[in-house]
Amino acid sequence: MRWGIVRDLFLAACLFLAPGLAVAEDVALEYAVKATCLYKFAPFSEWPDGVLGPAGVPLRLCVAGQDPFGPVLERALKDQQIAGRAIDLVRLGAADRTAGCAIMFIGADGKAAHAAIDGLRGAPVLTVTDGKADPTARGIINFVLVEGRVRFEIDAHEATRSGLTISSKLLAIALGERPH
């Protein structure tokens, strides 16, 4: 499949599969798109053997700290599966390396965001941040707004350091690899 088609399909899925977007306000629309993209990163990511548990065990998607999604994330995850795994949404007061999260959205800014990212460094957790909250605190994947559209950057070096492999297809549609 051509990279342009993969990119277009991924971005279209993030935008058009988020429920209720036509009537959402701009900020609500932005977070509905981010909520949908958040779980769609999983099929393009590989964790080390044994990290996700045996087949059929749900994939844990965690939101640590401030939650900008509200009920939009539950609606986006409803009835979704990743490689035959249900998705369990877990909300944490703070990032926790031992929480068993495969994907963790860090919804903090300032010192709290930096501490969360530093605390998860090297752990097999796909960390996702929102550059809007704190442009200096970036997870492996970082959402950014470009000309009013939700896009993302990927730190492939940090993914490798955490034992994760990010698909070349996802890397190809990211804004570019961030320097480390």
Summarize the structure.
The chain has 180 residues and is an alpha/beta fold. The chain is 33% helix and 24% strand.
Descriptive account of the structure:
The strands form two sheets. The chain has a seven-stranded mixed β-sheet, with helices on both faces. Strands 1-9 form a two-stranded antiparallel sheet. It is globular and about 40 Å long. About 6% of the residues have low confidence. Helix 1 packs across helix 2 and helix 2 packs across helix 3. With 180 residues, the chain is an alpha/beta fold. 33% of the residues lie in helices and 24% in strands. It has six helices and nine strands. It has one domain: 3-Layer(aba) Sandwich (Rossmann fold), CATH 3.40.50.
Key terms for this structure?
single chain; 180 residues; alpha/beta; Rossmann fold; 7-stranded mixed sheet; two-stranded antiparallel ribbon; 33% helix
Number of helices: 6
Q: How many E strands?
A: 9
Strand content: 15-25%
- What would you report as the Rg, rounded to the nearest angstrom? 15 Å
Give the overall form.
globular
CATH topology descriptor: Rossmann fold
Annotate the secondary structure layout.
Elements: H1 3-16, H2 26-40, E1 45-46, E2 59-65, H3 71-77, E3 81-82, E4 85-92, E5 103-107, H4 110-120, E6 126-130, E7 141-146, E8 149-154, H5 156-161, E9 165-166, H6 168-173
